[in-house]
Amino acid sequence: METEEIKPRTLAYLRSAPEPEFAAEMCVMDKDGYYTVICMSDQALVNMAAAATRLIAERKFFKENPNG
Fold first, then answer.
1. Which of 11, 58, 8, 20 minimizes the C-alpha distance to 38?
2. pLDDT band for position 3 (50/70/90)?
3. What torsion do the CA atoms of 8, 9, 11, 14 make, to the nearest 10 degrees?
4. Are residues 29 and 10 in contact, defined by beta-carbon separation less than 8 angstroms?
5. In the chain, how long is the greatest CA-to-CA distance?
6. In what order do the strands lie in the sheet with 35-40?
7. Distance between CA 68 and CA 64 in Å, rounded?
8. Closest Cα partner for 30 from 17, 12, 16?
9. What tens digit of pLDDT does each residue of 21-59 get?
10. Which of 29, 32, 57, 68 is the most core-located residue (most Cβ within 10 A)?
């Protein structure tokens, strides 16, 4: 069984959702220039923020304060 490679998408924007039942909209653009808008729940947005914080911390973005 052959697996198809998933091409990365470009984040176009992350903004408040116009629908009150969703926390945010994330829009991504694929390699062909097509846009996809994904509505996110409060929990999905929290999960994304946690994952983003973990990834940036792994890259040593947050420096330790030498003064404690």
1. 11
2. confident
3. -110
4. yes
5. 56
6. 10-16, 24-29, 35-40
7. 8
8. 12
9. 999 999 999 888 899 999 999 999 999 999 999 999 998
10. 29
Which amino acid appears at position 18 of this protein? P
- The answer to whether 7 and 34 have CB atoms below 8 angstroms apart is no
3-state helix, strand, coil in the chain (%, to 5): 25, 30, 45
pTM given for the model? 0.70
3-state secondary structure of 38: strand
The amino acid that residue 24 corresponds to is A
- Identity at 51, one-letter amino acid code: A
